[in-house]
Amino acid sequence: MVRPNYKAVVIGGSAGSFSVVSKLLSQLREDFPLPVIICLHRLKHVRSGLVESIRLKSKLEVIEPNDKEKIEAGKVYLAPSNYHMFVEYDGSFSLSTEAPQNHSRPSIDYTLSSAAYVYRNKLVGIILTGANKDGAKGMKDIADKKGITIIQDPKTCEMDTMPKSVARLINPDKILSPEGIISYLNQLAI
Amino acid sequence: MAVNFKISELRNIAEQLTEKVDIPFDQMTHSFLKRRLNDVFDRHGFKKSKQLIDSLNNKLFCDDLCLFFSVNITELFRDASFWRHLRTVISEKYNGIPFHIWLPDLSSGEELYSLLILLNEIDFAGNVQITVNHPSAKTIDSVKSGKILAQKMDINAYNYKRFEGVKSIEDYYQENRNGFEFNPALLDQVVYQQANMLKRPNDLVDLILFRNSMLYYTKEYHVKLKSNFDKALKSGGFICLGVKEVLPAPYDDRFECVERKEKVYCKYSFIKE
Fold first, then answer.
1. Are the Cβ atoms of A45 and B30 closer than 8 angstroms?
2. Chain A contacts of B259, Cβ < 8 Å?
3. In Å, how far is B91's CA from the nearest CA of chain A?
4. Is B215 on the interface with A (CB under 8 A)?
5. Mean pLDDT over residues B45-52, rounded?
6. Overall fold of domain B80-267
7. CATH fold of A8-188
8. Contact A134, A105 (CB under 8 A)
9. Interval B173-215: pLDDT, tens
C-alpha cells in the first residue's frame, strides 16, 4: 500500500445517519490507513449503546475516546454523548462540556472545524443525512483549508437538510451516494 | 469574525495572561484557548492581541476573564449514574464519620448544589465540611446566590429523577422573578476560597470532586494536578473525575480506579500521609 495523501477522514451526521455509518464501516477495507473521526447527533443522556451497535458490523476498531486520547491510523473514533470533541495539534482528542452548538452536543461543526485547523488540506470531510444545519460551517472550514469535501447525495438521504446546508455554503468536491462514499474511501486506501 | 491566531501568537498571549490572571492559560488545550480567545476578541471588539494585554491592568477585566474562561454550562446531576454511585460510596464509607469534600474548580453552582442535595437526602449534611475554589470573585458570588436559570429547570428535574432522589427538585428551589434560587440554608456549610485549583485546603480532604475540569488543560498539566490532589487527599480518600476523563498514568502505585465507568479513583489506604 502506498502512503495515503490524506491524514484523516471526518464524518458528521444526524437523523438517519446511523445506518449509513454502519454500512460504511462494514465495507471499509480492513487495512484502511487513516483515522476515521465520526460525530453523530445522539441522545445526550444515553451513554452506551451507540458505539456497541456500530462495533457490531465494523471491520475497524471503534472507540469512544477519553479526553486526550491519541488519534491512531486505522481506528474509528465516535464523539461521546454529551461532550464536544475536538482534534488537537498534538494528534489527540480533547473533549468539552461547553454549551451546545446548533442545539447539539457533540457539535459536528466543532469537530470538523478543529480537524480542518489541524489537518488542513490533508483532510476528507463528509456530511451525511441529517435534519439540521450543524456541520455546514465545519465543512466550509475544511474547504477553506483545501481539504476534500463530500456530501451525501440528498436524494439518498432520510433527511436532506444537513447536506443541503453544506451545499448552500460551499460547492462540495463530491456529492455521492453511501455506496459512492464507501468506494471513494476505499480508493484512498490503495 | 474569527481571529486567525498563529500558534506562536496564542502561546505568547497565554504566557502573558498566566502572569496577570490566576489561571494557567499557558496549560490550556490549544483548541479551547483559541476558541475562548476568539470569543473574548469578539465581545470586546479587539483586533490585536496588544489590546487584550493592555486591558489586563484592569482588575475587573481580569475577573471577567476568569469567569469567561470557566466552563459554567452544566446541569444538576449531570451523569446521574455517577451521582447514584457517589451516594453509595459516601453512605457506606462515611456513615457517622466527619469528612471533608473539596471541589477545586467551582465553575458553576450545579455540581455543588447536586452534592448538597445528595448529602441532605442521606442526612449527612451536618457531618461534612465542603471547600470550594475559584479564582473569580464573580463566580463565587454567583454560586453563593444560588441562582439558576429557569430554562435549565426541566433538564435539572429530569436528571434528578434519574438520580433517583427521594424528594422533588422543587423542594430545593424557590421560584422568584429572576428564575430559581437554591435553598440558602444548604449553602451555609460551604467554605469558599478565591483561588485557583492548585490552592489546597488547610486540612487533608476525604473526597475531591473534580469532574470535567481537566478537559480544558494539557496532559502535562494533568500530571501536576494529580500530584497536587495526591498531596491534598487522605489515604483511603477518593478522586472523582468526569466520565470521559482519566487520571494520568502511571497512577497505580498510589491510586486504584475503583469505578471504571464513573472514573472514581481511591488513594490506597496503606499510603502514609
1. no
2. none
3. 25
4. yes
5. 90
6. Rossmann fold (3.40.50)
7. Rossmann fold (3.40.50)
8. no
9. 988 877 889 998 999 889 999 999 999 999 999 999 999 999 9
